[in-house]
Amino acid sequence: MSRFIVALVAGGLCAAAGLGASPDPKDLTIPQQELSKARELVRKLGSEGYREREEAYADLVKMGRLARPALLEAAATDPDPEVRFRCSRLLPRAGADDLKARLDTFLADSDGKYEHDLPGLKQFRKTVGQDEKSRSLFVDIIKSPYNVELLQALDRTTTEAGRAVADRRGLLYSHLQNRNLGGRVMPPQQIPLEDIACLLFAETVVPSKEIPRTGMWSYVTGATFIQQQSSNNALNNAGAAHAEAYRRIVATWIEGREDVQDLNQLAYIAGQQLRSFPQSVPLLRKIVTTDGVYGYAKGQALMYLIKGREKEEQAFLRSRLKDDTLVTTVWFGNVNPNQQPQQLQCLLKDVALAMLITQTGQKMTDYGYKFPNGAAVNDGTIGYGNYAFENEEARAAAMVKFGFWELKQSLKPAAKEAPKDGQPKADPPAAAPAPARR
């Protein structure tokens, strides 16, 4: 979007409330006499006379959106290359004027009575809803012409939409840095909630594989911005502006995360900031099972996954007992002064086994786990990174031991269910009467 179009749309949005625009989109219909006037002016763009061509061009500029249908038609089909060229030059401004008029109409429709043809609105309503809270957030989103530009891209090809998402990520991230603008250093800025909401919404629409990763900030994703102050406030404070509608976007966004770069960043975020979302549980599982995700992120996700969900996730932990992903290298220091410092690898299956052992009331030391000197062993809050097996034989022996332990548990007779509180215990069966003497 060129600078003059940004300025045109932005200026219109700022003044929309006071322009007295009609709330009914039907009032934007272009009268037939205006269409005829525009077509006649377009025809004059191919005139032999220079003055006539220039006057027609200037009049078409003044017509703005009213000339847009004629310009579109001529730019695509007119046989005169001069006419096609001049119409293509006029179209961006006419398109911006048309968009401004539609935005003004939407803003004037404060009761939401009418259907509006706006960039991204149909998909936004499908994702976020059509209630007043959703509309209020959308209104604030489209007050930024850069958000409008991103929403416009969503209605075009996936390639264009992906490029627009990548560009928007880069622009927003640049606002978090010190910037030198013509010798003037601009300090980092807080990102407004509506800008974060718009980006996350766009990421729910555009598949991750369609978003290019180029440039110096290729690692930046929506996960980078969900930790910003405005986002945290909306996630943790139900009374914050747009909190409810924003949480709907975040919930849908969580469900669609599949890119490895996103998943690498989301282990901590899903386990802490987003823990109240039901969607965080399958997301944490996805982080653990996706190839290419860093080992430390998998270990972290596993730790947050079982927190408060020990019983529910035991089957998932068992499914990880063959996962050889390296989670971390544990430094044991100089075990022997005559030897090199000892470093042992902790694999994902080691973490899963440690969690199963502690959940079943057993001790890790009984299974051969080694802890660095001075490391505190807390079987009640086992994490990862401070224990390991000395070698592969010790790891295999621990797996076999746990397998035998589970087998023995399965062979134990099921305990009889104790009577619930408040219920009388069942009386023992009465003894059979003794036979009568003869």
Provide a quick synopsis of the model.
By secondary structure, the chain is mainly alpha-helical. The protein contains 19 helices and 4 strands. The protein has helices at 3-15, 32-44, 50-63, 68-77, 81-108, 121-128, 132-141, 145-154, 158-174, 193-205, 222-225, 229-236, 243-255, 260-271, 280-289, 295-306, 314-319, 348-359, 392-411; strands at 179-181, 184-186, 326-333, 342-347.
Description:
By secondary structure, the protein is mostly helical. The chain has 19 helices and 4 strands. Helices cover 53% and strands 5% of the residues. The protein has a two-stranded antiparallel ribbon with strand order 1-2. Strands 3-4 form a two-stranded antiparallel sheet. 32% of the residues are buried.
Observed structural traits:
mainly alpha; two-stranded antiparallel ribbon; disordered N terminus
Which spans of ≥5 residues are poorly predicted at pLDDT below 50? 1-10, 14-19
Gross geometry: elongated
Structural class: mainly alpha
H-E order? HHHHHHHHHEEHHHHHHHHEEHH
Read across the widest sheet, the strand sequence of neighbours is 1-2
Strand content: under 5%
The tally of strands reads 4
Give the topology, please.
Blueprint: H1 3-15, H2 32-44, H3 50-63, H4 68-77, H5 81-108, H6 121-128, H7 132-141, H8 145-154, H9 158-174, E1 179-181, E2 184-186, H10 193-205, H11 222-225, H12 229-236, H13 243-255, H14 260-271, H15 280-289, H16 295-306, H17 314-319, E3 326-333, E4 342-347, H18 348-359, H19 392-411
Antiparallel strand pairs: 1-2, 3-4
Helix pairs in contact: 1-5, 2-3, 2-4, 3-5, 4-5, 7-10, 8-9, 8-10, 9-10, 10-13, 14-15, 14-16, 15-16
